[in-house]
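Retro notes, structure queue

What went well: the backlog is down to a handful. What didn't: a couple of records were mislabeled last round, so from now on we paste the full input next to the output in the thread. Example, using Thioredoxin domain-containing protein from Leucocoprinus leucothites:
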Amino acid sequence: MLSQLVLLCVMLAPSLVSADALFAEDSLVKMLGPDSFRSALEPNQTSMIAFLSPANVNNEQLASDYAKAALGLHPFVPVYAVDCGQQSNHELCEEKSIEKFPTIKLYPRGNTVPSLTYEDSNESASAFYYWASRRIPNYVTKHYQVEKIESWINENKDKHRVLLLSKDKKVPLLWTVLANKYVGQLDMAYHRDRKGKSSVKLGMEAGGKKEAKILVYPAGSTTALRYEGIQKMDSLSRFFDSMIDGGVDLKVANKVAMEEEFVPDEKELEIERRQEAQRLALAHGGFASLIDFEQAVKDGHGADYHDIHGYPGMMGEPPKKTKGQDDTVVDEPSAWSDEEEGSSRISDEL
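Corresponding output:
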């Protein structure tokens, strides 16, 4: 009943600016209606949706911060908005029990699990960003020792397993998103290989400063195939789909992935530039003086943005191809590591 009264007030209020006009044409916030709303909620994907009213006096500031959050979350978490002031959306907003404006909801796995409602009074871009990114369902097993990896490989031999070796302290958001996408189909794990020593023990080179390695263990096998393709969302998804299909030779699929040419999309490159500018602006906002800010940049706050983040949705740089490059088969892991003890299924804090 309350949601009906709220919607009635929205209908009667003077609509000076429609909610969809709040977002720029190049904004990553996409407006939804009843039909597009249902199709947007993918069951294996996390989405954030704002329910807005044109009568809300704080709309412009909210839209600005919400759009910045969308920029930061791209391409991992799609960000949408619904204009509850539009007649065609009234039934949808009532169905979703919208009782105040704005109402921000997170759908961790489409309609398959209950949505979450943003309750904090802090409606800043960073608050929206962290709230959404930290609530992506986590299905990544985090290993601290190579001997734990060996146990995981053997104990889950009946499943497809995928291991990420990274020098990053935290699980990359891309890996968390992929684990959410393929839950029940792939058993995905992460190991921090800070100095490359674990890679050496696994029969590989230590690797570069930012290099990540992906090892694939098909169901029934304890021998890894090293993925040689581009480490971005769509490329990895194609390879994982081939693995799950079962009718594809993984060495052939890996060769196809290895031969993929990285063709930068101008739109994505512009998004990357905007993401970098936003990161630098946020870093500058946290310091009292320009001198402090310049020192922070030297210390890494945004200075190596391209190296750390790269093309949107990608870990590291596109692979460098060499003639005659073959698929790499990795020996089974030895039972030790210089990393921290234990392994656990944990949430990844950004």
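Agreed that this is the format going forward. Reviewer comment attached to the example: The chain has a mean pLDDT of 82.
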